[in-house]
Amino acid sequence: MIKFSPILFSIFIFFNSFYTSKKIKNRKTYIIAIHGGAGTIKKKNMTPELEKKYLETLKKALKKGEDHLKKGGTAIQTVELVIKILEDSPLFNAGKGAVFNHNGYQEMDASIMDGKNLNCGAISGITNLKNPIEGARIVMDSTKHVFLYGKRAQDFCIKKGAVYADSSYFFTKNRWEQFQRALKKNTIELDHDGKNKTESDIKKFGTVGCVVKDIYGNLAAGTSTGGLTNKKYGRIGDSPIIGAGNYADNNSCAISCTGTGEYFIKGTIARDVAALYQFKNISLKKAAKKTMKKLNKLGGRGGFIAVDKNGKYILVFNTRGMFRGVANSNGIFDIKIYKN
Ligand code: ASP
After folding, report:
1. What is the separation of C-alpha 310 from the centre of its chain, rounded to a whole number of angstroms?
2. Alpha-carbon gap, residue 302 to 264, rounded angstroms
């Protein structure tokens, strides 16, 4: 018979706790957050079917991103992968669901940033890339530049392997109707008459974004958009502008924005969150609060998502809702649309 020995028992407890604490220390943590735009998104303007569609698409994108991170995928890969899923959905104002400009076609913008080395890539005024975020990645990886625009940028990206899509691919009935209403009212914003409950009746900015901290501790951010319905004169918003609609730095955080782009540019909103966090040495929550205050003061509407180097996150907006989600290695997997 084995006799109970207090000494042996203490040794066992000591080694066991040592091993467990080491395991916890070495545990690979990650976090991913996504958004699909902010705006006047009210439950009463949604049908259960439409709500389900949004939730399912957000869930699919978040899940794919999380799985990729679990398998050891990098932050930058994950951002591109997730944004492509959102771009391929007609629900969001990016890629397939992009809004119409004043001339009746889609002009898309996107940007991506790697927090490890501050490498970044952006494109704007893109009409025929199936996934504008792919173009942004190509600019980052295959040029010495940061920001390319228009047809020549597009041709270059296609030459480097980006998938071409004919204009007909981007046509969606909802966006067309939205455009017709905006034309009639001569507004650049989306009009909501509340009669028909379709996605075009929800007043929102449907830009998509993704921010990630991977298991290696690296951060990355990406943002992709069709801009604003009925936009004129080659207008470019904040989404492809590094520091305005998108930013990532391993020393602070990764941020992606959505909303009235002009105000995000004026307020350098994405960079402000990161700079406040880093130089004022305050929490991500506090940095976001201060930046949101600035956006409010400027008159900007929308929101932003961010994850910091310690794995903390925020999903904030000054509108009625924001399509959003977050997942991390502590078991959080959460998707939301409305304020609460
Ligand atoms: N921020 C985008 C822009 O101004 C619009 C959006 O977020 O939907 O182009």
Report:
1. 19
2. 9
CB 225 less than 6 A from any atom of ligand 1: yes
**Total length of the chain:** 340
- Closest among 333, 331, 338 to 29, alpha carbons compared: 331
Supply the residue whose CA is at minimum distance from atom 9 of ligand 1: 227
Give CA–CA dist 212/22, Å, rounded.
25
What integer is the mean pLDDT of 270-291? 98
Q: Rg of the chain over CA atoms, in angstroms?
A: 22
> What are the structural domains, with CATH classification, of the chain?
30-338 (3.60.20.30)
Q: Which of 172, 207, 258, 319 is catalytic?
A: 207
Instruction: Give the residue among 142, 155, 125, 120 at the shortest CA–CA distance from 243.
Output: 120
Has 207 been annotated as catalytic?
Answer: yes
Residue with token string 């020995």: 5
Q: In this predicted model, what pLDDT tens digit does every residue of 192-224 receive, in sequence order?
A: 233 334 444 446 678 999 999 999 999 999 999
